[in-house]
């Protein structure tokens, strides 16, 4: 659920490949360093020229005056030939530029160049390269093409995407440093994708499956995919079209593709049955026109009741995840990343990742009036209060409960409302991706360079 967050930018972090891409990798690094040095030098030249034009100059040393007197025409001849004033501005400028970099400034420039190279190497290692970007864009085109032109075959696209991206990211989660992220898969969004795959297999199973089981799987999956998963796609900042980053694109796959899959099954059932008559049986009335709310359309009901409706089944499946996950976190998960335990921590959880980014401080201030210093200490040690976890799960349940009767109901209301909701949500995902690439190409280097120069020129370091 996190990325989260190597670059081949136009300049070069979760975190642009133009012009200089014709160079080899090592040449690219050297060229970037050389380009930066040139920009810095030109900037300093302009500053010194401005000083000279303002009359802020240093008089040349006597030795340099003698050398220039020997090598250049006299002031009188200069005045005669071109009417120039004998101020030797060019020689003064050269002398000033020679003295441009002091020892501390040179150290700072070298440090900045080193960090630029480190960022480039890290971004490249994380997949920021031409081939990955091209593959990511083409994959999105392929998914969009099949979704629009061949909705009857989109279930195959979903399976292929899931069977590639989900295991790929799981391997990266296991290898994640400093903490193993394998337990992220216990999170709701991941588990509901496994539920979607199982439900799809049940719908397409050649083995006789009772129609009641098919109905339950389809209705529950529709409410979950078009409610909580679609809502998470809208609000989670790490669900973004970052084409070169497989980890981030996996977030798009597990959140955005299930609603698209259920769209094709809900509104293109006839085409699916014509294309796959021996696999799918979607002509059942309970699948074609399902009841959304139980109790004659009443959206208010207790979890576990209202089975047989889309909302009732979705809430029941959520509770089947909520109770085991909460129990596991209280018994095991809360203690896993804690740094003050007897053995070094090895594993991370989604709750700890979310809480250490500042949610701990916000929760403590809003609900418990907890001092900020205490919250910061908890974040430093990854040791949080149980009541914070209850707030986290309470907000999670509230958002799920709100998404099912709003987004899910809109998607079930009509084909066009379903498409409109998905379009608006995907527009937000595209916008977040554009923000990420804008940061890569315009802000990442400037912030890093500004930070280095400010730290090196601060009074404490002088």
What do these coordinates show?
This protein has 462 residues and is mainly alpha-helical. The protein folds into two domains: 19-122, no CATH class; 132-450, no CATH class. It is built from 18 helices and no strands. The radius of gyration is 31 Å and the shape is globular.
Question: Which features would summarize this protein structure in a list?
Answer:
single chain, 462 residues, mainly alpha, 18 helices, 70% helix, phospholipid biosynthesis, transmembrane, lipid biosynthesis, phospholipid metabolism
Quick overview:
By secondary structure, this protein is an all-alpha fold. It is 70% helix and 0% strand. It has helices spanning 25-53, 62-71, 75-82, 89-98, 103-125, 130-149, 154-175, 188-204, 211-235, 246-267, 269-275, 285-288, 294-297, 310-331, 350-368, 372-381, 386-413, 415-457.
Mean pLDDT value:
80
Helix content: 55-70%
Tell me the fraction of residues in β-strands, as a range: under 5%
Largest sheet: none
Tally of contiguous helical segments: 18
Classification by helices and strands: mainly alpha
The total tally of domains equals 2
N- to C-terminal separation? 44 Å
Query: Looking at the structure, what is the overall shape?
Result: globular
The residue ranges in which pLDDT falls below 50 over 5 or more consecutive positions are 1-32, 56-69, 71-87
H/E element order = HHHHHHHHHHHHHHHHHH
Give me the Rg, rounded: 31 Å
Count of beta strands: 0
InterPro entries: GPCAT
Pfam families: DUF2838
Protein name: Glycerophosphocholine acyltransferase 1
GO biological process, one term: phosphatidylcholine biosynthetic process
């Amino acid at each position: 659920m996190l990325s989260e967050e190597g670059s081949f930018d136009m300049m070069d972090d979760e975190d642009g490949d133009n012009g200089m891409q014709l160079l080899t990798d090592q040449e690219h690094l050297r060229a970037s360093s050389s380009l930066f040095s040139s920009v810095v030098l030109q900037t300093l030249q302009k500053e010194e020229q401005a000083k000279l034009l303002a009359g802020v100059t240093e008089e040349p040393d006597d030795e340099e005056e003698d050398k220039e007197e020997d090598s250049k025409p006299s002031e009188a001849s200069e005045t005669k030939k071109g009417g120039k004033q004998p101020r030797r501005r060019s020689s003064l400028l050269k002398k000033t530029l020679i003295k441009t970099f002091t020892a501390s400034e040179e150290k700072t420039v070298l440090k900045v160049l080193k960090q630029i190279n480190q960022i480039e190497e890290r971004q490249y290692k994380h997949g920021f390269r031409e081939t990955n970007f091209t593959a990511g864009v083409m994959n999105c085109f392929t998914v969009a093409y099949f979704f629009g032109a061949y909705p009857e075959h989109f279930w195959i696209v979903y399976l292929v995407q899931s069977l590639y991206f989900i295991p790929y990211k799981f391997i990266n989660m296991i290898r994640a440093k400093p903490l193993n992220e394998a337990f992220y898969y216990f999170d709701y969004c991941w588990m509901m994708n496994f539920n979607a795959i199982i439900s799809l297999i049940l719908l397409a199973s050649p083995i006789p499956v009772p129609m009641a089981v098919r109905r339950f799987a389809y209705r529950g999956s529709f409410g979950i995919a078009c409610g909580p998963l679609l809502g998470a796609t809208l609000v989670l900042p790490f669900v973004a079209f970052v084409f070169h980053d497989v980890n981030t694109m996996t977030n798009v796959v597990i959140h955005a593709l299930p609603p698209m899959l259920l769209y094709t099954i809900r509104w293109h059932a006839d085409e699916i049955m014509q294309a796959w008559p021996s696999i799918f049986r979607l002509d059942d009335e309970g699948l074609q026109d399902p009841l959304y709310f139980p109790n004659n359309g009443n959206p208010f009901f207790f979890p576990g009741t209202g089975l047989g409706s889309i909302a009732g089944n979705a809430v029941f499946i959520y509770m089947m995840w909520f109770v085991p996950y909460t129990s596991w976190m209280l018994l095991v998960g809360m203690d896993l990343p804690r740094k003050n335990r007897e053995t070094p921590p090895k594993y991370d959880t989604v709750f700890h990742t979310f809480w250490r980014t500042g949610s701990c401080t916000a929760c403590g201030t809003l609900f418990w009036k907890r001092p900020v210093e205490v919250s910061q200490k908890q974040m430093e040690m990854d040791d949080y209060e149980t009541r914070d976890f209850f707030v986290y799960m309470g907000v999670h349940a509230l958002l799920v409960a709100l998404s099912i009767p709003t987004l899910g109901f809109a998607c079930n209301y009509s084909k066009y409302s379903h498409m409109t909701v998905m379009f608006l949500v995907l527009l937000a995902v595209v916008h977040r991706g554009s923000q990420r690439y804008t940061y890569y190409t315009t802000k990442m280097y400037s912030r890093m360079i500004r930070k280095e120069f400010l730290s090196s020129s601060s009074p404490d370091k002088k």
